[in-house]
Design goal:
With 236 residues, the chain is mainly α. It has nine helices and two strands; from the N terminus they run ββααααααααα. A two-stranded antiparallel sheet has the order 1-2.
């Protein structure tokens, strides 16, 4: 079980002496919250399809690049936000004498964050995947399968953190809504989709492409609504 970190803050020693003050958790939370429009790229399927047709498929490679980039960057940003929210709540719990009571919730939240942290080391470099798709083609289907699995794994982990944080913040007198468990989608039927794509000479991949653009869009927008509630509670 991952241990709960002590509250951060104050001065951080550096090899050359005393460094600048580290960012407070509330500031880290605010920065991660404000960066969401940098990481959570929203696709319009018809625009993407139109530009792909007009450019004879060239724009489609840009779409593949963004599919990998946005999922990687979104996971990193959400991890930063949730960790900061947990550390800040630990400070508040200390002020209210509730750390021991809420310790199990903090530890469960930290264990879910660890899943998200492990995902940051997965092989998902967008440029490398773009090159693989450019030279092999089949890497595009493999990428669809990996990204869909990533979305399910990421959403399950962050949903666990959100649930624990909602309980913690509500106990601290700063109510945050529980995440909707129904939002977590199931994995695509990869075997069936590959077979149908082959049988239809690739036509079905257009629908699969639509899913890969739209499902993360919906995921981001759901995240934003919960983040708004968290930010409001943290700043009370």
């Amino acid at each position: 079980m991952t241990s709960v970190p002590p509250p951060s803050g104050g001065f951080t020693p550096s090899p050359g002496g005393v460094g600048p003050p580290s960012a407070q958790p509330i500031d880290q939370l605010r920065l991660a919250y404000q960066r969401r429009h940098e990481t959570d790229y929203i696709f319009n399927f018809w625009t993407a399809l139109g530009w792909t047709i007009l450019t004879f498929g060239i724009f489609g490679y840009y779409v593949y690049y963004q599919l990998f980039r946005r999922m990687r960057d979104h996971n990193i940003r959400r991890l930063e936000l949730l960790e900061a929210a947990r550390t800040y709540a630990w400070q508040l719990a200390g002020q209210q004498g509730l750390q021991e009571e809420l310790r199990p919730n903090f530890e469960r939240a930290a264990s879910h964050e660890e899943v998200m942290r492990q995902m940051t080391s997965d092989f998902r470099d967008p440029l490398i995947w773009l090159l693989l798709i450019w030279f092999t083609g089949i890497a595009g289907i493999i990428g669809f399968i990996l990204l869909d699995g990533d979305l399910v794994k990421h959403d399950t982990a962050e949903g666990g953190v959100e649930s624990e944080l909602a309980t913690i913040y509500t106990r601290l007198g700063r109510p945050v809504p529980q995440p909707d468990p129904a939002r977590i989608k199931g994995k695509h039927n990869y075997v069936a989709r590959v077979i149908v794509s082959i049988v239809t000479f690739g036509i079905y991949t257009i629908w699969w492409w639509y899913n890969m653009l739209n499902e993360p869009n919906e995921h981001f927008e759901t995240n934003w609504a919960w983040e708004d509630a968290l930010a409001q509670a943290a700043q009370q």
